[in-house]
Specification:
mainly alpha; about 95% helix; about 0% strand
């Protein structure tokens, strides 16, 4: 009976150990495992939610970058148009100013030519008078013959 009593004692001890473990040890372990499982599940869901939010944020960023590029290209195009417009206005103003300067120069030239012609007519009249004096060998008075000299200058 030694073997049967030992087996019976071990069985009773094992049954007490199983009962004690099931009553006091197992519930906190299962509770802790269940809480851990809930935390892991919540963490996985949060990670998936964060991943979706990251994808949406990346999509928004790409949209904003695309919009910024479009806006930048529009600004550059407007700046180029404005520069071309300013350049064309500057060309027109330069042409107008050049034409004004040319017109003023032509007017000055025409006045100087007219003055030179008048000077030449006067000199020619004086030469004609001198030549006539020499031909008739006597002194002529230019003030007395002013009309004659003007007629002679007009013919020249």
């Amino acid at each position: 009976m030694d073997i049967n009593a030992t087996i019976l004692g071990q069985f009773i001890t094992f049954a007490i150990l199983v009962w004690f473990t099931m009553k006091y040890v197992w519930p906190p372990i299962t509770k802790t495992l269940h809480e851990r499982e809930l935390k892991i599940t919540a963490g996985i869901e949060a990670a998936e939610r964060s991943k979706r939010e990251l994808e949406m944020a990346e999509h928004r960023v790409f949209s904003m970058i695309r919009d910024a590029k479009v806006q930048a290209s529009q600004i550059i195009e407007q700046a180029n148009l404005h520069a071309a417009k300013l350049l064309e206005e500057a060309k027109i103003n330069a042409r107008q100013e050049g034409q004004r300067i040319v017109d003023m120069a032509q007017g000055d030239i025409e006045r100087e030519v007219a003055q030179a012609k008048e000077g030449l007519k006067t000199q020619l009249a004086a030469l004609a008078v001198t030549g006539a004096e020499k031909i008739i060998q006597r002194k002529l008075d230019p003030s007395l013959h002013y009309d004659l000299l003007n007629e002679l200058a007009g013919e020249i």
